[in-house]
Write a structure and sequence with these properties.
single chain, 457 residues, alpha+beta, Chitinase A, domain 3, four-stranded antiparallel beta sheet, 15 strands, 17% strand, globular, OMP_Chaperone_SurA, Peptidyl-prolyl cis-trans isomerase SurA, rotamase
């Protein structure tokens, strides 16, 4: 979602898995995809097991020697989470599901090149059928995720527990940490002129006027013109409450509107918006919005490049340190006051494991740098925020591959200890809930040796 608070997005621990759509094929024809398990109202198809393995590998989750029984039990657990989430009324709105689904589809389109390739991969007739099918799978995954987060939300860990966890690991079984780097960056964004901003404001005001005075469709304008790609296909729709993790400016406007009102244009870090408040349902707001992001001129982009080249020259000539230059000049407010030091978005650790970096552009920038060396300026196109900017990076320190160390790798050890404690809490929850839910297991999977008593013997 384009204007979610970024720190909240980083906290999400599980990626979405689109499982259950791939149909196994044989040379003679299509294999019948039978039901092999039921948990509550949720079924498990045989094809989901192989598809789950593919998705786990795609998410870089180690699969080791996982058997079909192991994968089947994972699916049983996922269905149990979703089943209990509905019983406990953990909220998952259609708008939330649609937004998340759209984001995933957009990313896949970027990866493979077209929506038609995705439709073919999932063996669907058209985009509408694809979206209808994916909607139910996304909803189930969101329910599963919400239930897991609910189970572990109060689990914390103390420094003493972290120490005990580390000391219990046999010395010859300590995990190896790959080559790592601490990276700092300086970002220079092209300046958006007052004229460019005013053009966007004027355009939003024209849209508002057309809706109010001429009866034009706000939905259609959002589909056609919004820069928030995640909500475009749904007419800019979101359903939010005061706890929904949207940026402050957006919520402040939304919660001061009357039902049926269209806001004045207002600015957030993502650009300029107008909101149409469709319905107030107690503390819940159903709204649509249009986001327009001002685009810099070619001259402004060239000026940004010139500015960052000048900053780099001063750093290389020892006129200013990289950290001081970041503090005084960088446009990245999340890193500038920390010497420009970046954090791995998955672990929030300032060390990046080189061979496991998600940002491949960043990897190519730093892979051949020495400690203290400053990269050449690179133009970054941020597809999520619909903006471009220049950045330079440096490596503050390199860490060679080594056995994990309690002091040197404390953040990693703490995350490992917390994950273990959370997993134990989830296991206790599953063991208890298995006895309460309707569960039916068919065929070869009745012979599996499960960790939990799914067969209720």
């Amino acid at each position: 979602m384009k204007f979610f608070n970024k720190k909240v997005m980083l906290a999400l621990g599980l990626a979405l898995s689109f499982v259950g759509f791939a149909q196994a094929q044989t040379k003679q024809g299509r294999k019948i995809d039978g039901v092999v398990g039921v948990v509550g109202d949720y079924i498990i198809l045989e094809s989901e097991i192989d598809k789950t393995l593919i998705e786990l590998k795609a998410q870089r989750i180690p699969v080791g020697d996982l058997s079909r029984c192991d994968l089947f039990e994972k699916l049983l657990e996922d269905k149990l989470f979703a089943h209990q989430a509905e019983i406990d009324s953990l909220p998952v709105t259609d708008a939330e599901v649609t937004t998340f689904m759209n984001e995933q589809i957009n990313r896949m389109v970027e990866d493979v090149g077209s929506i038609d390739k995705i439709i073919k991969f999932y063996n669907k007739k058209n985009e509408e059928e694809l979206r209808e099918s994916l909607f139910e799978i996304v909803k189930q995954n969101k329910l599963t995720q919400n239930m897991q987060q609910h189970i572990v939300e109060k689990v914390t860990i103390t420094p003493e527990e972290v120490r005990q966890f580390f000391n219990e690991i046999p010395k010859d079984q300590l995990p190896t940490v790959g080559d790592e780097v601490e990276i700092a960056e300086i970002v220079i964004k092209p300046e958006i002129s007052k004229e460019q901003k005013q053009k966007v404001i004027d355009r939003l005001n024209e849209m508002k006027k057309d809706v109010l005075e001429n009866g034009a469709s706000f939905f259609s304008k959002a589909v056609l013109f919004t820069d928030d790609r995640a909500s475009a296909s749904n007419g800019g729709f979101y359903s939010i409450n005061k706890k929904t993790q949207f940026v402050k400016e957006f919520k402040e406007v939304a919660f001061n509107m009357a039902e049926g009102e269209i806001s004045e244009p207002f600015e957030t870090e993502f650009g300029f918006h107008i909101i149409y408040l469709e319905k107030i349902r107690g503390q819940q707001l159903d709204l649509r919005h249009i986001l327009l992001t001002p685009k810099p001129t070619d001259e402004a982009v060239a000026e940004a490049k010139k500015k960052i080249e000048g900053i780099r020259e001063k750093i290389v000539n020892k006129e200013i340190s990289f950290a001081d230059a970041a503090a005084s000049s960088s446009d990245n407010k999340d890193t500038k006051l920390n010497g420009g030091v970046m954090k791995d978005p998955r672990s929030l650790d300032p060390r990046f494991e080189l061979n496991n970096m998600e940002d491949r552009e960043l990897y190519f920038l730093v892979s051949n740098l020495k400690e203290g060396e400053v990269s050449q300026p690179a133009l970054k196109n941020d597809m999520q925020k619909q903006e471009k900017y220049y950045r330079i990076v440096t490596i503050n320190k390199k860490y060679a591959e080594h056995k994990i160390d309690f002091v040197e790798d404390f953040t990693k050890v703490k995350n490992m200890a917390l994950n273990k404690k959370q997993s134990q809490e989830v296991e206790k929850w599953v063991s208890k809930k298995v006895g309460d839910a309707y569960i039916n297991i068919q065929g070869e999977f009745r012979d599996c040796k499960f960790r939990n008593n799914w067969l209720k013997k």
